[in-house]
């Protein structure tokens, strides 16, 4: 998940690039770079880490004459986060930036090496610029060389290329990764998101997959597989906050919808055809590990609970989950054959950070799952795996939970493969399920409309039970947490089998029960538990692919072949339910009372 900015025009180009990258920095802060061609030639600056390092490195440079410019902020997928792997990548006299994954880059790279091309980086992106320069040898027309280049690329990409051989043009192509073009008079802008060009461009065109072309002389020429295309621009909002919401009522709503796309970023470069790959983890890292202990708070704790079932079931390794604020004061027994995993959206959660320091002091290996590179927890850990969820502005976490849970599932499979506890066929099935997660997380209009209509029935009463079994028990905890965070209604998550051991005493017609009833996991057991509640006149909202005749309300989910796909689909339903109830109650969904996004105190 990276950010791209481009510009063709006479304005000061470094400022345009840096301002745009600042708006996109949440998409990656492993490194950043810019490249500019003007009458003085090619100029390039790169820096590791956050954008401020690039600003410092390029502070003496300016380009106020006509020229072309491209910039990039990176989250590493291929190659470590260092200056050589930072974009833009240089050929002999051309620069390229790219988001996505070139799936056939190793084949292309080997062919180019045999022809004498030298590679400086470990990235897949560098093949684009070398392949382009190879194609220019056989073509006087630089755009035809670019067209030939993208025809050979397999995978997802949004790319911009500039060359000193045609210094007044930017070549562009889009397939699978977002990119748009902004216009203001003769000035032309490119970006991964419209927030990067708000206040600069006045109209915008959002590129479709398979479209490519060039910008030159204040004009964009656009092509697809059918040839040259006409296109219509849309007005670009001047309100940055409104534009950031992309037409949604709240950031939380937008972030629920974004889950279907951000999980692709989480998997990018990691989920391969027949294996799970983490470049961050050494092959021998798990050799002396016999136990996993996970420490987290809040929503992150719930994702940890989900993974504990999977680690023991699939990877056959003991997994214990601790609430960080409790772990710190219980005088825990820690042995050096334990891998200590911390999970935090921000990487600054105080209790989790202090728990990590305790584990390090005891000599344990440590691994962080986090959304923010260079955060305290990431810096303290031996290894960090970034969730790549992007900025989450809603205080009540949604896409952070989805990406944490997905990444932990991937880590389970990675561990199982190395400990030889999963067959090749089973791993292949799991990878196939992973690739279907985007569909499971997609919000259908009919679903959201139904939840909106149902929500008016759940505004009054004396509370909610969310119930589930196995991995759906942590999801019940998370569903209850989401509802109480933003609606201020009392909600509790329970293991469905525990209802008869006390909580069922609360059951009556004013108690709402949200029952998570997956087809692929203990369906008959939880059905029996829900029947017990129904017999006590509890109002039942059943979420299941199987109709439940005793339910007062029923939300039908798609019948999935894999239980994790059912999990993610039901997760979306619980998020939307909390959202719609809260909106009906007139609450500020994004900024609920008494809460903060990052808890940096005990």
Model description:
With 602 residues, the protein is of the alpha/beta class. The chain folds into 3 domains: 3-242, 4-Layer Sandwich (Glutamine Phosphoribosylpyrophosphate, subunit 1, domain 1), CATH 3.60.20; 245-439, Rossmann fold; 443-595, Glucose-6-phosphate isomerase like protein, domain 1 (Rossmann fold), CATH 3.40.50. The chain is built from 18 helices and 25 strands. It has an 8-stranded antiparallel sheet with strand order 3-2-4-1-10-9-11-15, with helices on one face. Strands 5-6-7-8-12-13-14 form a 7-stranded antiparallel sheet, covered by helices on one side. It has a 5-stranded parallel sheet with strand order 17-16-18-19-20, with helices on both faces. Helix 4 (126-137) packs across helix 5, helix 12 runs antiparallel to helix 13 (424-435) and helix 16 runs parallel beside helix 18 (563-584). The chain is globular, with a radius of gyration of 26 Å. It starts with a strand and ends in an 18-residue tail after the last helix. The model has no long low-confidence stretch (mean pLDDT 89).
